[in-house]
Every structure is written in C-alpha cells, then in structure tokens.
Amino acid sequence: MLAQQARALGKFFADTRFTTIHTSDLKRASGTAQALYDAQKDPKPIFDSSELLREQHFGVAEGKPWTYSSGRSVNLEEEMVKGVYPTLHGSDEKFPGGESINDLGQRAHRAITTLLLPHVWQAAKEGKSGVHVAVVGHGLCISQMISGLLKMSANQAIGIVDYRGLLNTAWTRLVIEIEVRIIR
Amino acid sequence: MVSVPANIPQGAQEGRPIDVDQQPLLVMRVTDVNRHSHTDNIVRDTIAMFLLHLITLNLTCQIRQKGGIGSTAYDEKQQDIRKAFFGGITEPLPDSDVRAHDKVTDEENIIE
C-alpha cells in the first residue's frame, strides 16, 4: 500500500518544481522519494540521500515488540533483561546503542544546517523566491526538524504545536522567509 | 528606494540578492501539517474492495451457516483495516506512546 501512496504523492506534486529532493537513506523513505522524483518533470531535481534524515535509532530495541505504557514504575534495564522494550520517557532516555529524543534533535539540527539552510542562503544570494525543496524522512525525525526550524525563527510568536503522529506519505509544508532589516 | 521606517523588517524580493554574510533573520511558517488528500482515492479503492470482500463473505456465511451469526462485526479483518487506515489508533495516546506509535507506523508497509 505504501508504494501506491508514494506514487499518489508523486502525482500530487508533479506540478510542483522541486530543485532538490533530500531523503533518508532508509529504504522505506527512499522509495517514497524515488516516486516523488519519478513524477517530476524535466529538468529533474537533484536527488540526495543522507543518513542524517534517518529515523530515531532505538538501539537494541530495534525490531523488538513494543510495550506501550504511559507511566513506568520499573527500571528500563530491568525491563530489557526480561525482553520487554517499553516506550521511552523523557528526552534523554534511550536504549543501548540508540538515540534519545535529544540526540535525534541534535541530528535534526545538523540536517537543517548542512542540508536545508544552504538552499536558503543560495536562493538569497541569487535573489530567488519560491524555491521548493522536498525532504523525505520519518515521523520522529521530521517532527524534530520542524521544531528545530521553528526555534530558529525570528518570529517567536508562531505557535509551536505537536508535529508528531504524521501518517505515511503525508506531507507538511514549512515556508522560510528571509527578513532584511533596513537601518538608515 | 526603501519606503519603510528604520528598523522595520522588510521581506526579500524576487530578483534582489541579499548579502547573507550579514546573517539575515529567518522567519519560519508552517502552512500545512500532515496532509494526505493524495491517498483519498487509494483509501476509497481499498474500502470498496473491503466491502466487496464482506459481501462475498456474508453470502458465503449465509449459505454455510443458516441461522448463524455471519456478522461482519466479528470479522477479525475489520481490526486490520482500521489499522491500515488509522494506524490502529482510535483514541489519543499518552505523550510517550505517541513517539512509539510514530515509530511503529513508520516501520509498517516497508517497501521491499
């Protein structure tokens, strides 16, 4: 079904000219990015694959069944010994070999500064507007990138809401504008 | 000519290069969130197939099980279809579970 959704996404954006498509190098995202790329008209956008856009890594818990729990009264390590991998709490908790939500936030920040902002500066130097860049990633990483971008905004009046719970192939758009202060 | 008072922000203009060495301020706006209208037709097609399946199943049940339940309410596939459409979530999840739900739904339907 995801392949159908990806093709539908590509068709939906066929008339939107992306200059670059950045994608996670994980198969489930790059397949969607490929469908987006295939539906683009010539000249085709640059296709860039990056591990910076991967989903939060859950270390030893990857591929293991989850135990949903909103409150935990037991130790995470004790749970893992029993083969139980509960949901993580807080921003620093992580499984061995994995990333915490804060770790993910830092990686998302690197993705913003190394992958996205260069497009903004390039467009600014060339005096271009209406430049579209697609980022194909995963729910948790995308939500951290959106939060990270909004924190960089000069307009802090923008209400930051929860960007988690994104559906497969669903899209979110963030517009970046450059503000020039004229001092006379 | 700039017709704005001192220190009032002015947005970038098409065709007018900006000196990025002066580290201009960025303003971010989220205009769309979690949009998925492109999948509406896929969902409708799947629902049509599912309903066809239910009708077929119901007919089969009525033939084989006279007076039996034969009810779609007991079809365990109904749970699967809810999961396919709504990620299996019908009520808000607690905060920490949202992250796990994101990860789980993200891992589903992997292109092989």
Compose a concise summary of this entry.
With 184 residues, chain A is of the alpha/beta class. In chain A, 38% of the residues lie in helices and 17% in strands. Chain A has a domain at 2-57 and 99-152: Rossmann fold (3-Layer(aba) Sandwich), CATH 3.40.50.1240.
Characterise the protein shown here:
The complex is a heterodimer of chains A (184) and B (112). Chain A is an alpha/beta fold and 184 residues long. Chain A has five helices and six strands; from the N terminus they run H-E-H-E-E-H-E-H-E-H-E. In chain A, helix 1 packs parallel to helix 2 and helix 4 packs across helix 5. Chain A is globular, with a radius of gyration of 19 Å. By secondary structure, chain B is of the alpha+beta class. Chain B is elongated, with a radius of gyration of 26 Å. The interface between A and B is large, with 70 and 57 residues.
Terminal residue distance of chain B: 58 Å
How far apart are the termini of chain A?
58 Å
Mean pLDDT of chain B: 58
Secondary-structure-derived class of chain B: alpha+beta
Largest beta sheet of chain A, briefly? 3 strands, parallel
User: Most extensive chain contact?
Assistant: A-B, 70 and 57 residues
How many E strands of chain B? 2
List keywords for this structure.
heterodimer, A: alpha/beta, Rossmann fold, three-stranded parallel beta sheet, two-stranded parallel sheet, globular, B: alpha+beta
